Amino acid sequence: MSVAVLDCKTVTGFMEAKEAFGNCVDKYFKMLDSNGDGSISPNELEEGLGSIFTMEFKSKSKEDINQFYRTFFERFDEDRDGKINCKEFASLMKEIMLAMARGIGGIPVIVALDQDSLLMMAVKHELARKA
Predict the structure, then answer these.
(1) Contact, 110 vs 3, CB < 8 A?
(2) Domain range spanning residue 27?
(3) Inter-residue contact 38 to 86 (CB < 8 Å)
(4) How many domains in the chain?
(5) 3-state secondary structure the chain
(6) Is residue 65 within 8 Å of 57, Cβ to Cβ?
């Protein structure tokens, strides 16, 4: 864990850097595609999503958690083939990042982030641009 300061511009600036954001999406896609078949199954999504985003489920029942993942998967499996391809995964990542940017807002916040989290990648990108 590391402590970082970020705001919505940290997140949106990272998303606008197409090469950096695309490389990050590819990295996470390969990480979640644990069997290497070029797609993410519902099980792979459930097992790996927490490594990208901190998921808080302490007060939820197992059924609520399962429903969350089913809904999440259905929302982004655009071609309804039962798996998420890299293009669908990129859409998922963009939508989640935009939601986080809106939630963070324009006032800088101090957050604790995992080293490999998507928000930490945005912070690192911003720091590299300023250097």
Answers:
(1) yes
(2) 2-130
(3) yes
(4) 1
(5) CEEEEECHHHHHHHHHCHHHHHHHHHHHHHHHCCCCCCCECHHHHHHHHHHHCCCCCCCCCHHHHHHHHHHHHHHHCCCCCCCECHHHHHHHHHHHHHHHHHHHCCCCEEEEECCCCHHHHHHHHHHHHHC
(6) yes
Largest CA distance in the chain: 47
Q: What's the token pair of residue 86?
A: 């890299």
pLDDT digits (tens, 9 = 90+) for 61-106: 778 877 888 888 888 999 999 999 999 999 988 998 999 999 999 9
Q: Is the full-model pTM beyond 0.85?
A: no
| Neighbouring residues of 51: CB distance < 8 A, sequence distance ≥ 6 | 31, 32, 116
Structure tokens at 102: 């809106």
Task: Classify residue 27 by burial, with Cβ atoms within 10 Å: 0-12, 13-18, 19+.
Answer: middle
CATH number of the domain bearing residue 108: 1.10.238.10
Listed residue (104, 103, 75, 80) closest to 91, CA to CA: 75
Place of tokens 């998507």: 118
